[in-house]
Amino acid sequence: MNLFEAVRGIVVGHATTLKYLFRKKSTIDYPREPYPHPERFRGVHELRKYDDGLERCIGCELCAVACPANAITVIGAENDPAKPTSPGERYGYRYEIDMLRCIFCGWCEEACPTDAIVLTPRFDIADYTRDRLVFGKDKLLVKDQFMQHMANTESAVLTDPGVAAPAAEPAQPASGAA
Amino acid sequence: MNELLADPWTKFALVVAIKSGALIFIVITSFAYLMLFERKILAWFQMRLGPIWCGPWGLLQPAADAVKLVLKEDLTPADADPLLYRFAPAIGVLTAVLAYAVIPFGTFPDGSPIAIADLNVGILFVLAAASLGVYGIALGGWASQSKWPLLGAIRSTAQMISYELAMGLSFIGVLLLAGTTDLGGITAAQSAHHLWFVIPQFVGFLIYFITATAETNRAPFDLPEAETELVAGFHTEYSSLRFGTFFVAEYINMITVSCIATLLFLGGGDGPFLSALPYLSVVWFMLKVSFFLFVLIWMRATLPRLRYDRLMAFGWKVLLPVAVLNVLVTATVVALWKANV
User: Fold this and answer.
1) What is the pLDDT of residue B242?
2) Among candidates A140, A156, A151, A127, which has minimal Cα distance to A45?
3) B78 — contact with chain A (CB < 8 Å)?
4) Mean pLDDT in chain B?
5) What is the mean pLDDT of residues B1-29?
6) How many alpha carbons fall within 13 Å on the CB side of residue B246?
7) What are the φ/ψ torsions at residue B116 (nearest 5 degrees)?
8) In whole angstroms, what is the distance from residue A84 CA to residue A78 CA?
9) Model-level ipTM above the cut of 0.90
10) How many pairs of residues across A and B have Cβ atoms under 8 Å apart?
11) Chain B residues 15-54 within an 8 A CB cutoff of chain A
12) pLDDT of residue A151
């Protein structure tokens, strides 16, 4: 064995490990530190609202039909004209997703005509009972007003052309890509 | 009480007992934090975070580990030799702590070493204690009556015998330069000329550090506990506190060899600002020891384990001849220099 080569190998090896000592750590201190997801990660669902506070869901049940796992149950109801829940005629009276059945395929998101149901990057939904994993409107309806606003405006238009609704009609990717 | 203290022997015994108790406390505590230090540094080398959940920055991890080990079931294999199986870890830790009786951690303002016993053959005592350490491993492996521990114990014994020779020879260069086997005297000889022996004895230093790594069964010489081949080597059958005791011994040995490296080659507590603050020598000593401990961990993070035949070939065909040559050259130079002066 060439002595020079051997010593060089040891020295270079130690230099390499020393360099790694000062590198940024790749571990994420998970529960205390958020895990960064890709933007299109399909996690727990969220029922979005319009900026004026009205729900997007019109209780059409298209998501429930599209769902390959039969995880979604929607019961629609007529809006009270004096105090509407959604801008349309009907709204989602009950909206339940069984998280134990859901396969997070995102078809509900694609089927939804009003972009009411969307999949968020949130994924940590472990719980102790099956009952608590059937999410109703109390858990699904968007809570963070800021995030809601962001979803309805700029960033949402950039990432999800569908959210831009009628105004952005000519700029739909289908026609733009053609 | 006063009458008891009037007797010089009782007083001496009492003072030594208190000193030893304090020292053992310090050594065991430093073991616990060396373990955390190693886990942390090793994690950083691998771009991980290491222990972070027990206390701030994982500082309470050693306590958590200790509690866990104590609560574990203490198993003894049915075929094991009951007496030796129980004694082996104790022998290991006893011989590991023994060396601290003579290690000077610095110097008092009057120049005398801060140590329990100012022994004039200190280095020989340390060498003897280190050699006895193999008994803990060999007996533990043998008494387990199981094949992996036995193989680990045999490897450990062969490794210790092979590398101890070169280690002893690497000391001789330093002893020739210092002209004493007293550890305090060796550091004094280095600070007197402000020349740490790592410079004139660089080859000796390299040999010492390599053999010391092998003596403490540290990577890349961790064949006695090679996980990939021998499950866990000599402590495969051990559990609970007895398992922990082997770890205490191993880590204390790490600190010991770092202390010896500091004393023999890096001038012990020698360093700047000593004339203004004499007790700073303890700090310098600790810093140098920490540096060596870091290098030991650094080596573990870098080097893969040696193959067994290469380990033996390296010990007998490279280290031993180089160590002999080093002794010859040093002896010649010292003899010629003394003749001229």
Assistant:
1) 85
2) A140
3) no
4) 84
5) 81
6) 28
7) -70, -50
8) 9
9) no
10) 32
11) 41, 44-49, 52
12) 61
